[in-house]
Amino acid sequence: MEVKIIEFAGRAGAGKTFIAKKLRDELEEAKDINCLYLSIRKRRKISLTISIISFKIFFLSIFLSFKLKAQSLNGFIFCLRRIYTILRRYKFYSKIAHETKNNKDKLLILEDEGIAQKSRAISRKSNSNYYQIVKVLYKHINIENILFIFVRAQAKIIKKRLLNRDNKKIKVSKNSITKGVKGLKNLSSKFNELEFLLVDNNENVDPIIKKIKQKLV
Fold it and tell me: Residue 72 class from Cβ within 10 Å (0-12 exposed, 13-18 middle, 19+ buried)?
C-alpha cells in the first residue's frame, strides 16, 4: 500500500482541522483514496499502546531534547514530552506502512498535530529555530512521503474564529497573530528540500482542497 502523510501546520484559528476533515470527507466520497484522520482520543490511545514497548523512543527523545538545546529544565521537559509524542505516533504510522506494503490501495494519513505543528511549540522553549527542529525530527521518523501544508489566514479572521470557539482559555493577541501570519511565509521558503504547500484560508476553502488534490495526483 502506498502511504502518504499530509501534515497541517499553522496557528490556532487558521483552519487546519477544518481543512483536514473536509479533505477527508471529499476523498472518502470519491472513493479514490483511503483516508485516516485520527481524533485526539484515538491518537492518545495509540501513543499509550506504543509507549509501553518503546524505551528506545524514550531515550532517543532525551537525546534530541538535549540536541535542540532547551532553554531551561522546564523547557527540557516540555520539549521531551512533545518529541516523545511525535516519535511514538510516527512509529505507529511506519508500522501501518510496513504491514500494508503489499496492498495496492492508497492510504492518506491526515495529521494536524504532527512534526510541523509540534515543532512550533518546541521552538519557543529551545534555542533551535523552527526549521532546524522540523529537520531533526523528520530525520528520525523513517517516513519520507510527507506533504507539509502551512495554513495562514488574515489576522482579523483568526481573531474572530478564536473568539467564537468554546474554549475561553485561548488568549487572543492581534500583534502575535499578525506576527505569526507574516512569519509563516518566510519560514515556508526554507522548505525547498521537503514537499510543502502554503495556503491562505480566509473564506472559501474549496480552492485549497483543489490544490491539495493536485499534489496527490
Answer: exposed
Do the beta carbons of residue 89 and residue 43 sit within 8 Å? yes
Percent share of the chain, pLDDT over 70: 73
Helix 130-139 vs helix 73-99: crossing angle, to nearest 10: 40
| Cβ within 8 Å of residue 134, ≥6 positions away | 115, 116, 119, 148, 191, 194
Rounded to 5 degrees, φ, ψ at 45 are -65, -40
Query: Pick from 146, 137, 131: which is nearest to 60 by CA?
Result: 137
Whole-model pTM: value is 0.77
Contact 82, 42 (CB under 8 A): no
What whole-number distance in Å separates Cα of residue 2 and Cα of residue 87?
A: 21
Question: What is the model's pLDDT at position 45?
Answer: 54
Q: Give the chain's domains with CATH numbers.
A: 2-216 (3.40.50.300)
Are 181 and 155 in contact by the 8 Å Cβ rule? The answer is: yes
CA 6 to chain centre: 8
From CA 144, how far away is CA 5, in angstroms rounded?
Answer: 9
